[in-house]
Specification:
Helices cover 80% and strands 0% of the residues. The mean pLDDT is 84. The chain is mainly alpha-helical. It has one domain. The chain has seven helices and no strands.
Length: 209
């Protein structure tokens, strides 16, 4: 009888230990998910803030960019990276294709692309895909500003060196500019949708423990 009682107690103890372990793992997973969601939310909220802050100037910029080339595209880039999350990119636009600066640029673009994929995984689909679309367009906007700057920078540098500089490749410039317009318009639209659809409010509810 004693052996049976000991065996039962041992089994119960083991079951309790397993239950406690499961509860602890569950709490750990919830904490980890909370931290990932919070981190993603704060980054996206910062990007949304920049869109709101520059809404009027960006809309005006779209109108102007549809008409003619822009030789001061770095202004747009600096406006759309003026937060702590992207602040290390601020001087990258003045050093396009230079190794050290390009490395910082590529690493940050990779981080944004990873954020785009992460929000699809850590939030319900109806929320995650809206967030991902916004981050995707924002990333593409920065990438296309960089490409456009590289194109115009080459022409300006040639002009400084000699008076017979190569002319601006109008076909390539026009194609890049049209893509840039699309990305900027898309970023503005998706930023507004996050507010209209109440997506960020839904995110905050999901973050709460």
């Amino acid at each position: 009888m004693t052996n049976i009682i000991v065996s039962v107690i041992t089994a119960c103890t083991a079951i309790v230990a397993i239950i406690i372990s499961i509860v602890q793992i569950s709490k750990s997973n919830k904490q980890s998910l909370f931290e990932r969601r919070l981190n993603a939310y704060l980054k996206i909220h910062s990007l949304k803030f920049l869109c709101d802050q520059n809404k009027i100037s960006n809309e005006q910029y779209v109108k102007e960019l549809k008409k003619e080339p822009d030789w001061d595209i770095e202004v747009l880039f600096c406006n759309m990276t003026n937060i702590s999350f992207l602040e290390e990119l601020q001087n990258v636009i003045d050093h396009t294709l230079e190794n050290d600066y390009q490395k910082k640029y590529l690493l940050k673009m990779e981080e944004l692309k990873n954020l785009c994929e992460e929000v699809r995984l850590i939030f319900p689909e109806i929320i995650g895909y809206e967030l991902a679309d916004f981050v995707y367009y924002y990333t593409e906007l920065l990438i296309n500003i960089y490409k456009y700057k590289a194109l115009t920078k080459n022409v300006l540098e040639q002009c400084e060196k000699n008076s017979t500089a190569l002319p601006l490749d109008q076909k390539n410039e026009n194609n890049l500019r049209q893509i840039l317009v699309q990305r900027l318009e898309g970023t503005i639209t998706l930023s507004e949708r996050l507010f209209k659809n109440g997506t960020l409010d839904k995110v905050k509810k999901k973050i709460k423990l």
